[in-house]
Amino acid sequence: MAEAPSPDPALLTGLRKAKVGPLPLQEKGAVGGMFPKGKAGEPLAKHAQQEGLVEEVKEKREVTTTSRGKSKTTTKDVVIGWGLTPAGLQYLADADSPKAALEALLPYVQKLAGPTAQPTTDFTAFAGTVDKATRECVSAIEKAFAGLRADVLRAVAPSNGAALDPAPILAALTTALSRIESPTIKPPVVAKQPDPTPKPAPDSAGAVTDEIVSFVATWTREKTVGPPLDAIMKHLRVSHPQLTVGAFHDALRRLVGANPPSIKLSGWSKTIHELPDPELALFVKHTVMYYAHSPQ
User: Fold this and answer.
1) Euclidean distance between CA atoms 133 and 125, whole angstroms
2) Cα distances (Å, whole numbers) of residue 31 to 45, 113, 211, 289
3) Residues 125-151 pLDDT 10s
4) Domain ranges, ordered by start, for the chain
5) Where is pLDDT greater, at 182 or 82?
6) 183 or 10, which is more confident
């Protein structure tokens, strides 16, 4: 089966920029945009629209008009830029996720646990198999990540001499890492050894969500406002030191999506560059969520 063509790096670079919020579709003068200005960016902008990766983002604003000395204020939908559609977010996540590279390693590791494997205490042959698999794994990794450095530099390089802005690539990497699923690999068949001391059970997802609800309620009761996500994460890591950002985001989504919701989220009102901990921000429908509240 023929492999699917790789995504256009220029298209990915433009889409990544929209992770921080609505932008013009193309650059214009000193104003930044997803894609380069003029004819250089027109094919990319057109392709993104045709594939349903981007859409206009509108927001209700009060517009005041004056006629014959009288002012009239009305609320209208105003286009504030272009943002990623759900399909666009999925496209980026699929392109940026290292899951494909991990899956490429799976056949080599599975050789250690194939159907012909037999119980053995002779580790000489086993060590040779490990060495061979290691060489093949290294080769697969080098091929999979050969272009990563160039893609990262292109994604964060300023186009007009402005200060370096890592926010787009940070948001893309956060999304990709939260989607990684570890391949399931059977261990090689070897002679049974005495069981080591049992390891402690991993952190329970239920315990994490319960602790979030309790912490948000206590914080809100004491300070009359909801806590920021970095304060919640700092509290959780005292009792759950292995908690990842992806697992934290999953817990928040479960609580918000419960019926009725166990907590509510609200957006960050300042610029993206002022976020205390950008990787903890949760992007929901073009809004950067950074505060949690009790549902009452």
Assistant:
1) 12
2) 16, 56, 44, 26
3) 556 655 666 666 665 566 555 545 544
4) 9-60+80-98+145-178, 205-293
5) 82
6) 10
- Residues with Cβ within 8 Å of 45's Cβ and at least 6 positions away in sequence, in order, are 14, 25, 26, 34, 35
In eight-state DSSP terms, residue 282 is E
Alpha-carbon distance 73 to 61, whole Å?
A: 10
Task: List, in order, residues 6 or more apart from 36 with CB less than 8 Å away.
Answer: 26, 27, 44, 159
- Give the DSSP H or E segment for 96: helix 86-96
Q: Are 204 and 242 in contact (CB under 8 A)?
A: no
CA-CA distance, 257 to 216, in Å (whole number)? Answer: 16
Give the closest residue to 22 by CA, choosing from 60, 53, 44, 55: 55
pLDDT for 202 beyond 50: no
pLDDT reading at 80 higher than 90: no
Q: What is the pTM assigned to this prediction? A: 0.36
Q: What confidence tens digit (pLDDT) does each residue in 221-246 have?
A: 998 889 999 999 999 999 898 899 98
Q: Which helix (H) or strand (E) holds 9?
A: helix 9-17
Percent of the chain with pLDDT over 70: 61
d(Cα 156, Cα 191) in Å, to the nearest integer? 51
Question: What is the rounded CA–CA span in Å between residue 15 and residue 188?
Answer: 43
Distance CA 32, CA 259 (A): 41
Give the residue ranges of DSSP H helices in 167-228: 167-178, 205-223
